[in-house]
Amino acid sequence: MQRGRASIEFEEPPVIISAASVAGKKEGEGPLGSSIDVVEQDEMFGMENWEQAESAMQKQTADLALEKGGIRKKEVRYLFAGDLLGQLIATSFGTVDLEIPLFGLYGACSTMGEALTLAAMTVHGGYAEKTLAIASSHFATAEKQFRFPLAYGNQRPYSATWTVTGCGAAVVGKAGENTKGCPRITGVTPGRIVDLGVQDSMNMGAAMAPAAVHTIRQNFEDFGVDETHYDRIITGDLGEIGRKILLDMMKQEGHDLKDVHMDCGIEIYNSGKQDTHAGGSGCGCSAVTLAAYILPRLRAGEWKRVLFLPTGALLSTVSFNEGQSIPGIAHGVVIEQG
Q1: Which residues pair with 132 in a beta bridge?
Q2: What is the pTM of this model?
Q3: How many angstroms separate the CA atoms of 25 and 274, rounded?
Q4: Which of 125, 141, 173 is the last residue of a domain?
Q5: What's the alpha-carbon Rg for the chain, to the nearest Å?
Q6: What is the C-alpha separation between 205 and 126, in angstroms, rounded?
Q7: Both 188 and 163 in a single domain?
Q8: CA 282 → CA 23, 260, 303, distances in Å?
């Protein structure tokens, strides 16, 4: 099953049995709005503060993913989930009522890729029949923790991205008679930390692009393929600036990704009509796009194979205030038509 330096090819690919997405009003007004399962007009989600709102969004998304798959909570053996907040408080408070053993994950905006990777490895290894992968973010909680209070009204540079208020959840399980047509996770390429010294927290696309390049290159090398192997190579939230850097760096290595690459942060908002600057970001960006846009196209046969590559900027309020650079990471998941 081990391929090359970092990748795994699954002999009996786990399948994504069901998936669900919940997002906020701004995301609902974007190009994917009609495909998102629930667009919540109240971004407080009926709660008293932003953090509780994100927890409520996680719980709603998890319940919906299970409901869509006709799966009971007790059938899910392990939960892999994470968010952007300190000590993963959106996840720990949001998933407590699920009563599923939890592996809390922090991969920044790459968390959905990490969750799917570990979920698939766990299922294929025989440690679980069904697992649940979840990742969320909320514009207000992220701004509050990493930048400024919303009331401050600070000006954002063009390179900045807009944190998605959204959550995506996917049930990953063993293939069987009732899973025909479900997208299959046929391989994974976990990423390593790449740090080229970018220090601008308002330009995370530049910080994450080198990590995406490394994981794509590693995937190509480990599996003996190139960009023609995939219908789409889909990064998480590089945005407009990060995408240009990615394409330029890959072009220098002899790979032209212009026609095959897409970025969740660019797809989720309408750059011409919504004031999001360089695009979308946050754990929920790739998670929502996966559930609302990518998986339906694989199910419909529009795409046969994609490399899903959520990207993360591994900064914290402490590291940024100490003047440290922003390391990046990207986890690759090969998902094929069922």
Answers
A1: 79, 171
A2: 0.94
A3: 12
A4: 173
A5: 18
A6: 37
A7: no
A8: 12, 23, 25
The burial class, CB within 10 Å (0-12 / 13-18 / 19+), for 312 is: buried
Residues 226 and 329 both lie in one domain: yes
Residue 85 CA to residue 247 CA, distance in Å, equals 31
Q: Calculate the CA 243 to chain-centre distance.
A: 16
**What is the per-residue DSSP string for 193-234?**
-B------TT-HHHHHHHHHHHHHHHHHHHHT--GGG-SEEE
272 and 287 housed in the same domain:
yes
Residue 74 CB neighbour total at 10 angstroms: 9
pLDDT category at 296 given cuts 50, 70, 90 is: very high
Of 287, 269, 288, nearest to 279 by C-alpha is: 269
Domain identity same for 322 and 194: yes
Give the chain's domain count. 2
Residues 228, 167, single domain; the answer is no
Amino acid 91 reads: T
d(CA 198, CA 178): 47
How would residue 148 be classed by pLDDT, with cut points 50, 70 and 90?
low
Whether residue 323 sits in one domain with residue 244: yes
Domain extent for 63: 2-173
Structure tokens at 219: 């995937």
Q: How far apart are CA 80 and CA 300, in angstroms?
A: 27
Residue owning tokens 């667009």 = 39
Strand partners, 38: 22
Domain boundary among 126, 151, 173: 173
- On average, the pLDDT of the chain sits at 93
Ranges of beta strands (E only) in the chain are: 2-3, 7-9, 15-24, 38-40, 78-82, 102-105, 130-137, 162-163, 166-173, 184-189, 232-235, 261-263, 280-281, 305-309, 311-313, 328-330, 332-336
pLDDT at 153 over 70: no
- Indicate whether 49 and 72 sit together in one domain: yes
